[in-house]
Amino acid sequence: MQIKKEAHFKNTWIVHELLADFEVEDVWQFPVVLKKEHNIALFQEQLFEAMEKLSQKGLAGLLFKFRFFLGQLFGWDKKEAVKDNSLKKGSIKERYANHFQINQADLIPGGKAEFEPVYILDNESLAEIKNETVHAGLHLSKVSFKEAYTIQMAVYVKPKGKLGKFYMSLIKPFRIAIVYPAMMRLVGKHWQDYLNKEKK
């Protein structure tokens, strides 16, 4: 479910300081329950598996495919060429490394997923995506929930120019009404399936 942005700022996360110049666009809470031993890395793995399924089914899947089609058509999603696995200039990962004086060898290697991992800690993680319309961060946090834990997701954005602002306002109704609710349902089911397998 969508929750108030204030809920995200109740805890002291690294991302607050790191992305102070970004806007918090959305904050959602997944319908999942985690045990103490379930860390963010485990949940993120299950989340990206579920997202892969989401992009291939239903109305939300059609919206993803349409967005990817537009990206290819207008060149919105061009990847920046990087030599020798060096940090991308202007990336959140570069900002993270410089801010906390972290050696490049100690950073999480880039993957093939749409979102580039910035950091993964026990109780929070951050990934980024950067294209011609927006620079955004996807933050996950493990928070107390009743007698256990759950996951909150905060989306940080910095639209690029008038095109970026127009694009973000254009997709907002679809994101709120279709994409995120579908994501919540699918991730909730995917996580429960994982827990059931864990019990066996």
Kindly name the structural category. alpha+beta
Q: Which percent range describes the beta-strand content? A: 15-25%
Q: Main β-sheet: number of strands, strand sense, barrel status?
A: 5 strands, antiparallel
Radius of gyration: 17 Å
By DSSP (H or I, 4+ residues per run), the number of helices equals: 5
Helix content: 40-55%
* Average pLDDT number: 82
Segments where pLDDT lies below 50 for 5+ residues?
69-76, 81-85
Distance between the termini: 29 Å
Number of domains: 1
Shape: globular
Helix-strand pattern: HEHHHEEEEH
For the largest beta sheet, what order do the strands appear in spatially? 1-5-4-3-2
Number of strands: 5
Q: How would you briefly describe this protein structure?
A:
This protein has 200 residues and is α+β, with helices and mostly antiparallel strands. It has five helices and five strands, in the order αβαααββββα. It has one domain (5-199).
Description of the molecule:
- It is built from five helices and five strands, in the order αβαααββββα.
- Helices cover 42% and strands 22% of the residues.
- Residues 69-76 and 81-85 have low confidence and may be disordered.
- The chain has one domain.
- A hairpin with a 3-residue loop joins strand 2 and strand 3.
- Helix 3 packs across helix 5.
- The chain is an alpha+beta fold.
